[in-house]
User: Fold this.
Amino acid sequence: MQLDTQTLVVAIVVMLVPALMGAMVWQTMRTYPGRWVLGNFMAVLSLVLLALRGWVPDWLSIVAANALAMTAGSAFLQGIRQFGNLRIVWWPECALGALGVSGVIYYRYAVNNINARILVISAVLGAIGISCGITLLKGMPQHRRVPSLIIGLAFTAGGTVHFVRGFYQFFFAPVTSLFDRTPSNTVLFLLIAVGAMSWSLGFILLTGERLPTEASEPHILRRKIPISIPQSLPEVVPEDEVREQLQRILHSDVFRRSAQMERFLSLVVERSLAGRPDELKEYILGRDVFHRGDDYDPRADSIVRVEAQRLRRKLREYYETQGIADPVLIALPAGTYVPIFRCVQSERRQPNKRHSI
Assistant:
């Protein structure tokens, strides 16, 4: 017995509602990655094509539907990396997706084996789902712990279920149709609906969660950095020394996994050294660093302010750890996007002589 049409329609609607909500959030809050919107709608379209199996050609209901499902997973993973300011690498997902699509095509047209197709697609979606979950759970910020935990666990659980279901059906409980009423299929389609709601609402909560500002987090401002700034500072730090310091920062563990932060810091430093502080305005930075268009409105999109706060925290973290003995200080004072450069002298860790920057 196959799943009835009403059940499939309900599942599609359950996935479509949060997808539409995510699209509306993306329109009003551009810190919500567009890849999440794309992933949601691809997942919905994939389920629609699966539901049309027998009504449309197999290249649509099998090949295209599974390709969309894998692309949706990749879009979610890329969006998670983008939101977390991690370096975006395309080739692993592309290679995995290409292998998955090739396997689906082979086990449909060369050897028509539905259980082998299920094994292939389950392995690909399982790997992507677990990667999404681990990426979120590893980089879970303190102030977004609850939504990060919800989405991370949803993706990890979903990926695990895909793995288990694929191997279980291939080796122990082969099916004759994708929609056979088997225990594994029942669990799968139930978790697809629950997972779609969990990650979609979780993404909205994650983006809408109030970001800490420097005024609301005095403990960040008060963190002492064991660097002593001489009373008489030279007015100008040589440009070559500033650039050497910039490279030390960019190659540090604090910055090396954040391409967006690297680009942000490099641009403000280089333009400041070039005597172009007038180009370090919110609108210009949004356009040049974060690839917003000419219609970028800083009042509606707070990306520059949010990322500037993150950059300041990363600089503090760097100078508290790897940069504790560095000879040049690069800082981005609150309320401005023009960096300052200072020559500093390192000192041993003496709590009673620490100075803050």
User: Anything to note?
Assistant: Residues 5-208 form one domain. Confidence is low (pLDDT under 50) at residues 209-234, 346-357. The longest helix spans residues 145-171.
